[in-house]
Amino acid sequence: MIDEALAALRDGKFILLYDFDDREGESLICTAVHPVAAIRLGLPFASDALRAIAVAEREGDIPYDRKNHSSFSLWVNHRDTFTGITDRDRALTVNAIAEQVKQALNGGGLSFHEVFRTPGHMALLRAAEGLLDRRKGQTELSIAMAEMAGITPAITICEMLDDESGNALSKADAKLYAMKHGLEFVEGPEVMERWEAEKRSQ
User: Fold this and answer.
1) Beta carbons of 104 and 41 less than 8 angstroms apart
2) Sign, CA torsion 126/130/131/134
3) Between the CA of residue 112 and those of 28, 35, 49, 170, what are the distances in Å?
4) Of 26, 160, 179, 200, which is most buried, counting CB atoms within 10 Å of its CB?
5) CATH homologous superfamily for the domain 2-201
6) Rounded to whole angstroms, how far apart are CA atoms 72 and 82?
7) What is the β-pairing status of strands 15-18 and 184-187?
């Protein structure tokens, strides 16, 4: 399944990425970015920004990830959006984020603050340095898959919710959804296995 999922990413298609049975619940629609690009673009972790104004994050406060802090960075809108909420506004913001990440990783000029305003409606996630060697969240899984697929490591992700219970969609129901809609479904352990195999071959 991992090969099919990477091929789908290269083709610009949606995939369903389930992390691990012992991790996350609900999440916002957000865009994960490569850690090197985040550093070059000057994106802070939200927890660091809050700590700087004396709203300290309690150690181990994330129930699904006691060892690491949240990946959340800034919430942004592209400066050419109106409210930032509509599909068109979000698409403009997301595509511009990907372009900024691409430029940051290829030595191009950086203009993040000129292109975006904050607060906005698209949450940015900063992947951990070392990616899956350091943290095994959706953020790192998504960016690792982008790297393995050879595409710009800026991936927009969103949690699938069960419209009956309001909880996160179960793995079984997510698989059924993928089959019904012709989408690739891949799990964290598969991504980890490929990630580690590619590291061994380098």
Assistant:
1) yes
2) negative
3) 22, 15, 17, 37
4) 160
5) DHBP synthase (3.90.870.10)
6) 23
7) parallel
Residue pair 127/36 in contact (Cβ under 8 Å)? The answer is no
Place of tokens 């960016």: 143
User: Do the beta carbons of residue 83 and residue 89 sit within 8 Å?
Assistant: yes
Q: What is the pLDDT of residues 84-97, one digit of tens each?
A: 999 999 999 999 99
pLDDT in tens, 22-45: 876 545 789 999 999 999 999 988
DSSP annotation string for 31-93 = EEE-HHHHHHHTPPPHHHHHHHTT-PPPTT--TT-TTS---EEEEEEETT-SSS-SHHHHHHH
Amino acid letter, 48: D
**pTM listed for this prediction:** 0.87
